[in-house]
Design brief:
Elements (H helix, E strand, L loop, with lengths): L2 H4 L2 H5 L1 H8 L6 H5 L5 E3 L15 E15 L6 E8 L4 E8 L6 H6 L5 E11 L2 E5 L2 E4 L9 H9 L2 E3 L8 H12 L13 H7 L4 H9 L4 H32 L15 H8 L6 H14 L6 E6 L5 H14 L3 E5 L3 H15 L16 E5 L5 H13 L2 E6 L13 E7 L6 H8 L7 E6 L5 H7 L4 E5 L9 E7 L3 H16 L3 E5 L31 H11 L10 H9 L9 E4 L5 H13 L4 E4 L12 E6 L7 H8 L9 E7 L6 H11 L3 H12 L25 H17 L7 H21 L1
Parallel strand pairs: 4-6, 9-14, 9-15, 10-12, 10-13, 11-12, 13-14, 16-21, 17-19, 17-20, 18-19, 20-21
Antiparallel strand pairs: 1-8, 2-3, 2-5, 3-4, 5-6, 5-7
Helix pairs in contact: 9-10, 10-25, 10-26, 11-13, 12-13, 23-24
Bound molecules: adenosine-5'-diphosphate and magnesium ion.
Protein name: Probable DNA 3'-5' helicase RecG
Keywords: ATP-binding, DNA damage, DNA repair, DNA-binding, Helicase, Hydrolase, Nucleotide-binding
Organism: Cellulosimicrobium arenosum
Length: about 750
């Protein structure tokens, strides 16, 4: 960016405006210019007042119907009640003051027939929506242009409506943008879109596009500008990914070709010992992976597959191919519990093949080492030795595997399970542990729609396991209104019935202690007393929802593990049933013990936080009750319920909710109850997160590099940009003659990607 765009707003606009804008995360001229209008008001078309959601910060275009001032009935003071309309519907505005005279100012302006922009938090008064003390602007009044002609002109132009907040309304952002935009010249605004791409699509410069979106004369103009900026975002992302792909392709890797039939190794022995036949998908993906591994450039593959689709076997077969060629594989899991579980699973699947070098072990066997932060000194030393000597063909662990003192004899493959908990740098750190760049297989159970895969994981080749191995009974999901006593009673009866049938039940709560802060985000205790640090935090998007919804006064407190476990122990419905607990603040040994007592059936009901979210596998678990389900995101609930119905008995998931019908939270839960198709859920999830027609406070001012691009809706733009970007990068892989593009990439890629990973 040039100096011009880097200029702090404090200098360009003065402290007052700059401070207000800073609350929206906007600090520099460049950032203000990228604070694009959320939408445009049309003075001839009013905002649909039917779409206003309680608690939301909105900006609307409406017409004043009438306004009256009166004294309050039961208290001193005066009230002005105005009614504005979109035609069929009304919304009331109220202003309070000590004396009627103090309301004269508003009364003079809010005269019938006038059009205005009104902004505030949507409240409820006796069943109807209202804005209390809204900020507003009457169109044609209040601006610097005080002559009639410019008032008329202004009244006919689209009104940019900016993501705003209580600290600064949309119409004060508009003049600020004008102040910084008007003096700019072409050379002040570098354009990441190369001229060749602009010419191909008949697009103007970036500066023109900024003028188009911020100061349009008509709808066509802002649409043109917005489309061009959207393509630019897609292009920069795709160019970044193309650069990454090109860079990875250029790295040398050791080819790990599969053994031939006349020289069978551990993979062949394993295949022969498998108690089930591979699904078609497992075979197909397995072949792709086998080919990738046999090349001398690093595999970069993302394997998606629903929970239970059998990704572990695919990964294990890839690891064995590498072991067969003399190399080692590292298997990274997001938590210690999962790492330990994976090590157990892998050893069980391998049987005698995992006892390489031991008496009674298979001749072609290897060893599976587990390396986590909680190992005792002796066990740790042994695992480190096995990794360094190569005795362990497979090393399973968490982030601990990334620590400097873990050495491998010959690391050939890195498998990352549940990618969304691992950052890009961590992956790179692990890859740095090998002589040549290791092959990489990333696995995720979060289904990723095609365009998201192209956008966020565009530097990885993707494969998917779409079928679930036969013999799974599936799962039914119901929403249980928390206030409905009959349903609640039935919920615990169902739990009791399942337990009586020899099954297990999970009860999931959003926080641990009843006196923890009443926000879902801190509920599971990151950094809490000595707890392990890689455990069970809720993802950031939940935190976001929690905050937005937490502003509402009518929230009931979140249920907590300790409290719910106590209640259930004392309840008649579950009398005589052992009830265990599991959460991230428990010492690792207690967690393991709780998990194995649950798995064995000794304690058939487990009240826990979201620790059970990823990968935990207890086939006898058939029912899951999720408290405060409305505070969780779609993909997390989908992951959670994937814990039940994994065996041959059908699963049941009961989502206990306090969400009012029609709210986004209720819609999320209804969607989950309707479908178990992970791809559909992922798409709905993305849709629900993009903005509605009115401005939501939770949406405004978030520092995201994707401002205009919507990965679900803009599939065409993304595809076009991908073609353009691939071409530009192929011609100039170092982007030597594309300074602006290079700068834009540095700025954009990482935050975007990390943001998705955190949310997913
Ligand atoms: P994921 O990691 O994709 O959630 P897993 O790899 O843990 O799924 O597999 C879930 C369960 O299904 C495991 O118990 C595994 O042994 C079993 N499984 C995997 N592949 C098959 C198959 N082809 N047929 C039957 N069972 C399978
Ligand atoms: Mg798994």
């Amino acid at each position: 960016m040039t100096a011009r765009l880097d200029e702090p707003l404090r200098r360009a606009l003065g402290t007052r405006s700059a401070n207000a804008l800073e609350k929206l995360g906007v600090r520099t001229v460049g950032e203000l210019l990228q604070h694009y209008p959320r939408r445009y008001g049309d003075p001839g078309r009013l905002t649909d007042l039917g779409g206003l959601a309680l608690g939301e910060h909105v900006t609307i275009v409406a017409q004043v119907q009438h306004a009256t001032v009166r004294r309050m009935r039961n208290r001193p003071g005066a009230i002005l009640e105005a009614v504005v309309t979109d035609g069929p519907r009304q919304l009331s505005l109220t202003f309070f003051a000590k004396h009627p005279g103090a309301l004269r100012y508003h009364e003079d302006r809010l005269t019938p027939g006038r059009l205005g922009l009104f902004t505030g938090v949507v409240g409820d008064y006796r069943g109807s929506r209202q804005l209390a003390h809204p900020d507003y602007k009457i169109i044609g009044m209040d601006d610097d242009a005080d002559d009639a002609e410019s008032a008329v002109l202004e009244a006919s132009r689209p009104i940019p409506i900016y993501p705003a907040s209580a600290s600064i309304p949309s119409w004060k952002i508009q003049p600020a943008v004008r102040t910084v935009l008007d003096p700019l010249r072409e050379q002040d605004v570098p354009d990441p879109l190369p001229e060749s791409v602009r010419t191909r699509h008949g697009l103007g410069t970036r500066l023109q596009a900024l003028r188009d979106v911020h100061e349009p004369y008509d709808e066509q103009q802002w649409r043109r500008g917005r489309d061009r900026l959207r393509l630019e975002e897609a292009f920069v992302l795709q160019a970044a990914l193309a650069v990454r792909r090109a860079r990875a392709d250029a790295e040398p890797a050791t080819a790990r070709a599969p053994r031939g039939v006349d020289d069978p190794g551990i993979l062949a022995a394993f295949d022969a010992s498998l108690p089930f036949t591979l699904t078609g998908g497992q075979r197909e993906v397995g072949e792709q992976v086998a080919e990738d591994l046999a090349r001398s450039r690093p595999m970069q593959r993302l394997l998606q597959g629903e929970v239970g689709s059998g990704k572990t076997v695919v990964a294990l077969r890839a690891m064995l191919q590498v072991v067969d060629s003399g190399g080692q594989a590292a298997f990274l899991a997001p938590t210690e519990v999962l790492a330990a579980q994976h090590a157990r699973t892998l050893r069980a699947l391998l049987g005698p093949l995992a006892e390489g070098g031991l008496l009674g072990g298979a001749e072609e066997g290897t060893r599976v080492a587990l390396l986590t932060g909680t190992l005792g000194a002796a066990a740790r030393k042994e695992a480190l030795l096995d990794a360094a000597s190569g005795a362990a063909g497979i090393v399973v662990g968490t982030h601990a595997l990334l620590s400097e003192n873990v050495q491998f004899a010959d690391l050939g493959l890195v498998v990352v399970d549940e990618q969304h908990r691992f950052g890009v740098e961590q992956r790179d750190a692990l890859r740095a542990k090998a002589r040549t760049s290791p092959h990489l297989l990333v696995m995720t159970a979060t289904p990723i729609p095609r365009t998201v895969a192209m956008t966020v994981f565009g530097d990885l080749e993707t494969s998917a396991l779409t079928e679930i191995p036969a013999g799974r009974a599936g799962i039914t999901t119901h929403v249980v209104p928390a206030a409905n006593e009959a349903w609640t009673r039935r919920t615990w009866e169902r739990v009791r019935e399942e337990v009586a049938a020899g099954h297990r039940a999970y009860v999931v709560c959003a926080r641990i202690h009843p006196d923890d802060p009443d926000t879902a985000d801190r509920s599971t205790g990151r950094g809490a007393a000595g707890g392990s640090d890689d455990f069970d935090e809720l993802p950031d998007f939940l935190l976001e929802q929690g905050e937005a919804e937490g502003e509402r006064p009518d929230r009931v407190p979140l249920r907590a593990v300790l409290e719910v476990a106590e209640e259930l122990r004392g309840s008649a419905a579950l009398a005589g049933v052992e009830i265990g607990i599991l959460h991230g603040q428990m010492p690792a040994a207690d967690k393991d013990a709780a998990m194995s007592r649950f798995a064995s059936g000794e304690v058939p009901v487990l009240v826990s936080t979201t620790v059970v979210e990823v990968g935990v596998d207890v086939p006898e678990a058939t029912v899951m009750v999720v408290h405060d389900a409305d505070r969780f995101g779609i993909s997390q609930l989908h992951q959670l319920r994937g814990r039940v119905g994994r065996g041959t008995a059908p699963g049941l998931c009961l989502l206990v909710s306090t969400a009012a019908p029609g709210t986004p939270a209720a819609t999320r839960l209804d969607t989950l109850a309707r479908t178990t198709d992970g791809f559909e859920l992922a798409a709905v999830d993305l849709e629900l997160r993009s903005e509605g027609d009115v401005l939501g406070a939770a949406q405004s001012g978030r520092a995201s590099s994707l401002r205009l691009l919507r990965v679900v809706k803009d599939a065409d733009v993304i595809a076009t940009a991908r073609v353009d970007a691939t071409e530009v990068v192929a011609d100039d892989p170092g982007l030597a003659s594309h300074d602006a593009l290079r700068d834009a990439i540095d700025e954009q890629l990482d935050p975007q990607r990390e943001e998705f990973l955190e949310r997913a």
